[in-house]
Specification:
Layout (H helix, E strand, L loop, with lengths): L1 H22 L7 H7 L4 H30 L3 H29 L9 H39 L2 H8 L1 H7 L2 H15 L5 H25 L9
Length: 225
Amino acid sequence: VLFCVETIFEAVQARTVQVIYIDNRAYPGGPWQYFLDTQNLAINVIFYATTFILTFLSDFLVLWRCWVIWTASGRLAAYLATAFPALLLLASFVMGTLWTLQSSQPGLSLYSKLPLAYGTSYYAISLSVNIILTILITFRLLLYRHRIKESLPEEHAKHYVSLLTIIIESAALYSLFSILFLITYAVNNPTNQIFLGMASSAQQIAGYLIIYRVAEGRAWKKDTL
């Protein structure tokens, strides 16, 4: 599902760039003004929708990994650890839906007052979810570090407790680019479009790395300990 939505997003993004900067480069006020004036076009609506769906699914994937990792300490601990992030994820879904709907209304854009407020809140919540989950996953893996090293040979233990493993399992890569996007978007800096694309790509890469580790059987499991 992630791959399909990401493919649609990349295709729409490429088409949007072509329409804005090539087909309408002579638009009164420039290409950027054309983009702001045509937010209700189907291609822009799809762009917002796929961006929102990708972010939500990727956040949900990290939430699932957090639950799996904490389940090694018992289901109660896992539910307690993921309860608050799950509520934040639900809130981000609501805000993301409102952001998508408002941004694609005729006469409005990403940078209109209401869509900007929704968008900033949405990405702030999404970023908060990722930061909290990153901390929870990192904290739990570090606590398990000594126990795993006592149970497994060094060459096997490193698959579960190495720095690279912690970065991959916690999807920390996405958090970095999300912060850059959120800052530039909140201050209405056009470079946010660059960081939006980079954040989306980083988010998908982080998700695919997790999926790859799961497929290879090297990812953390409920019964790892």
